[in-house]
Amino acid sequence: MKYATAIADPWSSEAEGACIPRHPSRNSMKVRGFGRFKMTIGTGGVGFAYLIPNVSNDTASIVYSTSAYAGTDANVNIQSTTTGVTVGNLSSLPFGYTTFQPVDKYTPATNAGRIVSCALSWQYTGTVSDMGGVCYALVHPDHSNTNNIGTNKIGAFAETQVTRVDNKRNWIGLSSIDDTETNYPLPVDNASVTPIMEVVCPYSNGDIFSSLAGDANLGGAPACIWIQGKAGITFQIEIVTHIEYIGAGAQYALTPTHSDAVGFEIVSNASARLPSKAQSNPTASRPSLMQAALREVGNELRPVAAVVGSSLLRIGSSAIAGAAMGAAKYGMPGLFTGASLGAAQGALRLTNG
After folding, report:
1. Looking at the domain that runs over 2-259, which CATH code has it been given?
2. What does the alpha-carbon distance between residue 36 and residue 172 come to, in Å, rounded to a whole number?
């Protein structure tokens, strides 16, 4: 449930201390990072913010426009060749990027990290008379780099959210989509890794932000917002991220990490449905969309759960854990857990939903 909350409502206090509830379930240091930034529409009428989730406190987590940005297409780099581009990092995180790099093939890195979830929000902060324009927000379905797409092509993605600029606070979020993103970097794999983005930017799908040599250590941006509006109008940008750390540097704050493989798969399945649900119901809150997605997944599993439950009832083994209604908060019927219920109780709960 905490993992689901970290995805559906990452700013909630209920999400603090979230972990990825699957193997490897090592004790970990669980941290919430947060930052605020001011994004401005440039002289060409275009503004942007690229989200680069990473585990360090001194690597850019966001690349965004200032009032000096003169481009009309949001395909940029962070070198001096692109005027009006600036970066921000999450200084509240505990470790710098050098601690994630192995010294050599015989000496592993001090720390390793994996991202539980990350989100980017934006809200117009200008005057009412200047409010207007259109915002395109995209979380790339493959977590590929959104910086190489271009404003004119972003609408081709079914996942792109298109909204008018108003006074509401909007946001997009990311969570892991494959085994690479749910695991900690392997020391053997990282022994000869260059550049650092392979271990610091786990959600970048191996991409770099731009082709310029100076950007080689910065991972690609799997999420972005591009806004077309009046030059000079401003937006408050906020980032929140939940991270787990292991390693020598994290020993002072380790806490248990629990494993629930079935629950993890259910939440992951539900989170994958959030973009399409947000498209079909753009005014709905993310927690309500997650609730609906969890309910769908639960209903799809009910026939299987009923068969399993009936089998357990016939076996009559009180040592086998039944089903618990642990997802009641989101209206989820019958989420498997390790609760010590009798087999008969488990069968009845599974069969009756």
Report:
1. 2.60.120.20
2. 15
